[in-house]
Amino acid sequence: MGKLPGATIADLQNARLFDMAVPRMYGGQQSSLRTLMDAVVEIGQGDGSVAWTLAILHGGTWMAAACYPKHVTDEIFAPGENTRVATVFMPRRAKTKRINGGVMIEEGIWNFNSGVYHAQWDILGIPIIDEASQIIDRASALIPISQVSLLNDWDTIGLRGSGSTSVAVKNVFVPNERLAFHSKTQQENFAADHLRNEPLYQLPILPFLAAKLVFPALGMAKGALELFIDKASQRSISFTFYEKQDEAAVTHLQVAEASAKIDAAELMLRRCLDDLEASTASGTSMPMEQRARIWRDAGFASRLIWEVVDMLAGASGGGFAQSANPMNQYWRDVRVAGLHGGICPNTTLEVFGRILCGKTPNAPLLQPHGND
């Protein structure tokens, strides 16, 4: 099944790109959100699967640093470990049982575990069940990869190299120290007390991780536009007198609209990052409406990016149909990236619209804070 080659992972590691979310106290880069975005967007222009894998592993590594106590993070980020952490929030199905000292995952399957082939740890979302078999909370369970079964079922039209296979867990005990309960993490009540004064590790989880999902596609859209403009000077428009596509007014309109939508998506995402960093720097909790707005912006930026790449693909001529055509790869990768449930525009727009209408957000990962 598709995954990145070892040489690519080595290149990313040697460039210390996997260290961007690792705290400085463990020898990491502890990079700003802007640095993360710039790196992922740049890589996305060349290869969507590499950018997607890097972005997802960054999120898992960030969660591992922020959401668990120091004696756990000491183990995760031990010297020389080159730590990479994959993550999936929602299981396809999971059966758990509370027992002394933690939770037993009796069985569970999680889809789309991007980057897991290259990770040492996996963070899997699980339900927390009471004695009446009712879900009373959810938690992010930190599990060594040795206890996770990779199902090798990633066979898709796009992002084929991301290795986003399904995984399964059976009869795995997760101690309380490796459980990050969502009722706490949604309030930024993170267990990493030793990082309490580091704003990077106080980010509100949902809007941060959602915005980050769009970075790879933004890079792909930029790459697609550059490719289109380059090829437009080398091909004609069939059944017209245009010997070069870039001489036609319709082409000028298309590239101008594409560049405007790319700029709009990028400006929205950068505003999201500015708001996230401003909130954590001030030490105040971000209001739910602002969280929802960032989530909405991530979904809407994803839609703008898809519109760009789909338009450019449609204007690329019959050669686009060839699977080896680079524009074809951008198109497939952006389409698959936009299918992620965390940035589905219908979901993000509905959630924000509900809040504007004075209703609850109807989203388990977006709950009121004390200041809402």
General description of the model:
This protein is an alpha+beta fold and 372 residues long. The protein has 2 domains: 181 residues, Butyryl-CoA Dehydrogenase, subunit A, domain 2 (Beta Barrel); 152 residues, Butyryl-CoA Dehydrogenase, subunit A, domain 3 (Up-down Bundle). It is built from 11 helices and 8 strands. Strands 1-4-5-8 form a 4-stranded mixed beta sheet. Helix 6 runs parallel beside helix 9, helix 7 packs antiparallel against helix 8 and helix 9 packs antiparallel against helix 10. The longest helix is centred in the last third of the chain and has 34 residues. The termini are far apart. 48% of the residues are buried. The model has no long low-confidence stretch (mean pLDDT 95).
Quick overview of this protein structure:
The chain is built from 11 helices and 8 strands. It has 372 residues and is α+β, with helices and mostly antiparallel strands. Strands 1-4-5-8 form a 4-stranded mixed sheet.
